[in-house]
Amino acid sequence: MKWKRKTRPTNGTTGDRKIIHIDMDAFFASVEQRDDPELRGKPVAVGGSKMRGVVAAASYEARVFGVRSAMPSVTAKRLCPQLIFVKGNFEKYHKVSNQIREIFLSYTDLVEPLSLDEAYLDVTDPKRGPASATLIAKAIRREILETTQLTASAGVSFNKFLAKVASDINKPNGMKVITREEAPAFLAALPVKDFHGVGKVTAARLEKMGFRTGADLMSLTELEIALRFGKMGRRLYSIVNALDDRPVNPTRNRKSVGAERTFSENIDTRHAMREKLNFLSEKVFSYLKEKNNYGRTVTLKMKSPEFVTHTRSRSFAGEIRSLATLRETAHSLLDENIEEVPVVRLLGLSVSNLEREGLGGHQLLLPFEEE
Ranges for the UmuC domain (predicted)? Predict the structure, then answer.
């Protein structure tokens, strides 16, 4: 890959950054298919069940039918009647993720995990391997396959936005490189709905105003786009003009740590809800204690059988450093809101306003499992 040099130093060098975005292919589902030959080549959903819960991940065989993560299980089953539901094993996924992380760190210390299955890497000055980011990305994908028997897709470019978008273009098990010379034409043709970080509502608003592709946004000056779209406008200007200067941050903060459960049957008693919250409290506190990083705000999440989500929070002057306090706070929030949500299909508990940096983007290993 050829890199056009810039005069402005970036990341301690005199040229463009070399950014790789690695994204595992259908990670949770692929791990399950790897470990159970009976699942290979079949539509698989991790998490949920035929009638309850939410899909945590879907195999590519399931995606053909429109099954996606975060989709209610009943919808997924309707789209794909032959769908096989598998209970998630997040301890196993975490172990595989650590294997992948070790491969990343053998090439660079500048690794910014986004979740268990994806990360940014800055290989401008790699610890080993060739100087080419393209060749490093190929080597990393090859080592991941050899170590885990799983495939990964990669995007390579000079900024994070382009690397992220590129990694999705040739999925699964593919790679895309976007050079500085190619960036203007690529961004001009990119639909705004495919801009990473632009949600459905914003994309619909942009399209309604006549901004359907990057080329439409390129016609605006920075002032014009800022006046039209505020803070989001400045980000759009940066993205569409290839000015995304965000560095890869290996100490990326986690804003909160939480866990949630969707239940096989609705829960309609205070006692049963408290028992579930006790379990969630133990899991969340165990993670905080392991990282020695506590928070000041507790948030309770309650989802009704009608899929209406209610959240209630309580903040403290100092960090919550005991399981008993976390559990009692969860119970108190429940007691104060149980009349509003007397029946739940899901309960969640999270702690935010964390004390310090250092969780590094790790994912708490409980969401989407059923009881």
Answer: 19-199
